Amino acid sequence: MNIEDMTPEQLREYATAKENQRESITARYMDREPNFKVVQGCKEPYEKDIEFEGETYRIDMRRIKSREFIRMFGKFQKYANEGKDAPVSDALALYDFVFGGKVDDKVCAVVKAKMGYEDFEEIMRIENALFEGIEVKN
């Protein structure tokens, strides 16, 4: 795509991607963790903003409405109906599917800024709150 044909949002995303690419290279040569930037463009009709602890996370609701999500959630729900805890791998797969991409990047950036590293428990705490904010119903 030609830069002249890009919308302002596309230009911002392109610029951020370039900055993140540069940061990745710099971090690799400086032997440190990269500090990536996350930019949110215009809100699409299928996106829902959920605020948690002063941060706004933009969730792609198309994932929640997909058949793949229903399959994964049904598998997850099966354990709850039996009074068992679902395997961690199933929970992670479900959360990766729902929050993959920009949401997960933002959650990780928030946790890293707060704690200095990507703490699994803190990431899951935030994503649990976001999952509740989505208001998924059977």
Characterization of this structure:
It is built from six helices and two strands. The radius of gyration is 17 Å and the shape is globular. It has a two-stranded antiparallel sheet. It has 138 residues and is mainly α. Helix 3 packs antiparallel against helix 4 and helix 5 packs across helix 6. 60% of the residues lie in helices and 9% in strands.
Proportion of residues in β-strands:
5-15%
Low-confidence stretches: none
Shape: globular
Distance between the ends: 42 Å
Helix-strand string: HEEHHHHH
- In the sheet with the most strands, the strands line up as 1-2
- CA radius of gyration is 17 Å
Please summarize the sheet with the most strands. 2 strands, antiparallel
Going by helix content, strand content and strand pairing, the class is: mainly alpha
Number of distinct beta strands:
2
Helix % is: 55-70%
Q: Let me know the average pLDDT.
A: 82
Number of helices: 6
Key descriptive features of the protein:
two-stranded antiparallel sheet, 9% strand, mainly alpha, single chain, 138 residues, 6 helices
